[in-house]
């Protein structure tokens, strides 16, 4: 009995509380340092002037969006695989998708804010923009599916299949939209032909931004996971409580105390 | 029973229900026609805009009508314990998926023939390169039918099915709209050979989602 309870408690946490707290503070410090470097440390861009500073959060946000959806796909696959099936993976997938959708929205908004002064337009029908927008709606649908109340098992099955479909669809969307039109700036850092010379501080700030956002992502994932697990636990308890009340009401004079509620391990 | 026979059985059931209820014929086809008419109201029919954008309008209309067709395809399973009947029928998931998707694809193809006539007659376009046009249409229809059946069963049994399927399905079939529209444009006004890469893309999409559907239909039906 006590073993079961201990197992259950483990299940509701992704990281140890100490690790989570340290990670939270580390992300906060990293974001503050990134802000200082992004706004003051790095020099203004020769062509794009201050607007280019948005890249220090736009690029990391886009990275987190892809990372988060990758983790969602991985979690879903691990849930579907019979040997690794566990509610842990369903929660990881769900939490990660929520963060992914938020960071996809952030990517689109930041890109739009940057596009206005640099391209002169809020929105362009460019391949990467369109792909990102479709990505946003794909996972918005996934979140809508998650919100529908059904049994946890049934929801996990539907959602993991839906997540994998979305994941398979992304390259097709990307590919087809790429054929359709391309106007976006080519990658700078990994472009061999360009042999880019980014100012040292600027490159550092960009990479630091990626690091800071990754810390934020892991922290948020852990917190969201915990919230989901507690939520599920609360629902279980409520159901047990309701059953206990029902049973008590039907017995003439009950000695039903709170025994079923106390043993809420399963 | 061979797979082919099981598929024909399931598809035959859906098509027989359609033959008797005539929901696609009397509701979904007129819906598509009125949408094409409304596009003419929204855009200026006199300046040739309609002719230029006819492929896009045609495929948007097909997708909207397909949402209704998917809803209908799983609506008939919702009543009278029909879904339990399917589960107890002893037919395999892949056969059930292929059967329902095939029936949906046949209904959509019939709808597309009617809507093509409308586009040709009312929007004034000429169909020149019929081979790539037909192949693109068939591949796109199979793709839409496969994804539609997949999401139909995914949402089956949920109270919000009607509103959930469009928000799940439309982003996934975005490449189909893109591919089919470009292929039609190339076949109608542009260089017909430009249509072939898009036909290939549509074919890959159709095959991929048919395979996913065959794998996932059985487990999803259990949950519905």
Task: Describe the structure in your own words.
The complex is a heterodimer of chains A (266) and B (224). Chain A is mainly alpha-helical and 266 residues long. Chain A is built from eight helices and no strands. Chain A has one domain (13-254). Helices cover 74% and strands 0% of the residues of chain A. Chain A is globular. The N and C termini of chain A lie close together (10 Å). Chain B has one domain (3-223). Chain B is globular. The chains are: A mainly alpha (266), B mainly alpha (224). At the A-B interface, helix 5 and helix 6 of A face helix 6, helix 7, helix 8 and helix 9 of B.
Architecture blueprint of SSEs:
The complex is a heterodimer of chains A (266) and B (224).
Chain A: H1 2-11, H2 17-41, H3 55-80, H4 87-118, H5 127-147, H6 152-180, H7 200-250, H8 259-262
Helix pairs in contact in A: 2-7, 3-4, 3-6, 3-7, 4-5, 4-6, 4-7, 5-6
Chain B: H1 3-21, H2 23-42, H3 49-78, H4 82-88, H5 93-123, H6 130-155, H7 161-172, H8 174-188, H9 195-223
Helix pairs in contact in B: 1-5, 2-3, 2-5, 3-5, 3-6, 3-7, 3-8, 5-6, 5-9, 6-7, 6-8, 6-9, 8-9
Number of helical elements of chain A: 8
Rounded to the nearest angstrom, the radius of gyration of chain B is 18 Å
**Helix/sheet category of chain B:** mainly alpha
Q: Count up the helices of chain B.
A: 9
Nearest-angstrom radius of gyration of chain A? 23 Å
Number of domains of chain A: 1
Helix content of chain A: over 70%
Which terms summarize this structure?
heterodimer, A: about 270 residues, mainly alpha, disordered N terminus, disordered C terminus, B: about 220 residues, about 85% helix, about 0% strand
Would you summarize the structure shown here?
The complex is a heterodimer of chains A (266) and B (224). Chain A is mainly alpha-helical and 266 residues long. In chain A, 74% of the residues lie in helices and 0% in strands.
């Amino acid at each position: 009995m006590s073993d079961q309870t201990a197992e259950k408690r483990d299940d509701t946490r992704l990281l140890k509380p100490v690790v989570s707290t340290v990670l939270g503070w580390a992300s906060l410090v990293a974001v503050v340092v990134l802000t200082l470097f992004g706004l003051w440390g790095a020099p203004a861009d020769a062509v794009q002037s201050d607007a280019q500073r948005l890249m220090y959060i736009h690029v990391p946000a886009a990275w987190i969006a892809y990372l988060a959806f990758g983790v969602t796909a991985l979690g879903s696959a691990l849930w579907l695989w019979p040997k690794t099936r566990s509610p842990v993976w369903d929660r990881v997938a769900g939490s990660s998708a929520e963060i992914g959708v938020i960071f996809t929205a952030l990517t689109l908004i930041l890109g739009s804010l940057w596009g206005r002064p640099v391209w002169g337009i809020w929105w362009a029908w460019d391949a990467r923009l369109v792909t990102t927008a479709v990505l946003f709606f794909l996972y918005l649908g996934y979140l809508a599916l998650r919100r529908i109340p059904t049994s946890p098992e049934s929801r996990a099955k539907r959602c993991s299949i839906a997540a994998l479909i979305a994941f398979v669809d992304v390259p097709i969307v990307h590919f087809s939209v790429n054929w359709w039109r391309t106007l976006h700036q080519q990658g700078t850092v990994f472009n061999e032909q360009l042999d880019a010379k980014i100012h040292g501080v600027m490159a550092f700030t960009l990479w630091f931004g990626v690091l800071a956002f990754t810390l934020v992502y892991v922290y948020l994932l852990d917190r969201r996971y915990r919230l989901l697990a507690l939520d599920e636990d609360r629902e279980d308890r409520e159901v047990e409580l309701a059953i206990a009340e029902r049973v008590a009401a039907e017995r003439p004079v009950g000695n039903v105390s709170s025994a079923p509620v106390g043993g809420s391990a399963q | 029973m061979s797979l082919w026979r099981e598929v024909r059985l399931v598809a035959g059931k859906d098509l027989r229900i359609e033959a008797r209820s005539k929901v696609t014929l009397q509701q979904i086809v007129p819906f598509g026609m009125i949408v094409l008419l409304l596009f003419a109201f929204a855009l200026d029919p006199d300046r040739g805009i309609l002719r230029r954008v006819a492929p896009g309008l045609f495929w948007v209309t097909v997708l909207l009508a397909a949402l209704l067709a998917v809803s209908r395809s799983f609506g008939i399973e919702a009543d009278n314990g029909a879904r339990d009947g399917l589960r107890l029928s002893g037919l395999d998931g892949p056969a059930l998926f292929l059967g329902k998707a095939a029936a949906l694809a046949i209904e959509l193809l019939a709808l597309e023939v009617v809507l093509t006539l409308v586009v040709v007659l009312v929007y004034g376009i000429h169909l020149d390169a019929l081979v790539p046009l037909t192949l693109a249409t068939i591949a796109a229809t199979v793709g839409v039918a496969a994804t539609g059946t997949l999401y139909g069963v995914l949402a089956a049994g949920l109270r919000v099915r009607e509103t959930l399927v469009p928000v799940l399905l439309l982003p996934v079939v975005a490449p189909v709209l893109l591919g089919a529209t470009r292929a039609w444009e190339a076949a109608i006004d542009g260089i017909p050979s430009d249509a072939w890469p898009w036909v290939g893309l549509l074919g890959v999409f159709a095959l991929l989602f048919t395979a996913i559907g065959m794998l996932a239909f059985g487990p999803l039906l259990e949950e519905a």
